């Protein structure tokens, strides 16, 4: 049974930082690309960042220079370090293995003063 479990969301002030983590189980983690998506109220789900099985990264233009995706294959985890957060980053953030049906349950990130 495949499980992706996100953690680390919360409420943060503009300019602050959060680190999201996604723990994977039931899959050959190191063989999969992984990604973070987000969905704000009333908007479509969008790609935030992805990392290939070999560690190549890709970012949405809106988060370049502020967010960093990384993976630890020994721990079966993928993380998203989010710095200089803005109110428009407010959304539910999801972990997924692109091209599969595997999605986490999501974690809420709220950026507000």
Topology:
Blueprint: E1 3-7, E2 10-12, E3 18-25, E4 34-39, E5 46-51, E6 57-59, E7 67-72, E8 77-82, E9 91-96, E10 107-111
Parallel strand pairs: 2-10
Antiparallel strand pairs: 1-3, 3-8, 4-5, 4-9, 5-6, 7-8, 9-10
Describe the structure.
A hairpin with a 5-residue loop joins strand 5 and strand 6 (57-59). 0% of the residues lie in helices and 48% in strands. It is globular and about 40 Å long. The chain is mainly β. The model has no long low-confidence stretch (mean pLDDT 97).
- Shape label: globular
Largest sheet, strands/sense/barrel: 6 strands, mixed
Q: Low-confidence parts lasting 5 or more residues at pLDDT below 50? A: none
Q: Write down the overall mean pLDDT.
A: 97
Rounded Rg? 13 Å
**Beta strand %:** over 45%
- In quaternary terms, these chains amount to single chain
Cα distance spanning the termini: 40 Å
Please state how the strands of the largest beta sheet are arranged side by side: 2-10-9-4-5-6
List keywords for this structure.
0% helix, 4-stranded antiparallel β-sheet, 113 residues, globular, 48% strand, mainly beta
Structure summary:
The chain has 113 residues and is mainly beta. 0% of the residues lie in helices and 48% in strands. It is globular and about 40 Å long.
């Amino acid at each position: 049974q495949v499980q992706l479990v996100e953690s680390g969301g919360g409420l943060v002030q503009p300019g602050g930082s959060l680190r999201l983590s996604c723990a994977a189980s039931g899959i050959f983690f190191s063989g999969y690309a992984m990604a973070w998506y987000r969905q704000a109220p009333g908007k479509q789900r969008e790609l935030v960042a992805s990392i290939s099985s070999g560690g190549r990264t890709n970012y949405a233009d809106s988060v370049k220079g502020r967010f960093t995706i990384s993976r630890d294959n020994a721990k079966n985890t993928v993380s998203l370090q989010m710095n200089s957060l803005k109110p428009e980053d407010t959304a539910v953030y999801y972990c997924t293995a692109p091209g599969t049906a595997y999605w986490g349950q999501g974690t809420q990130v709220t950026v507000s003063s």
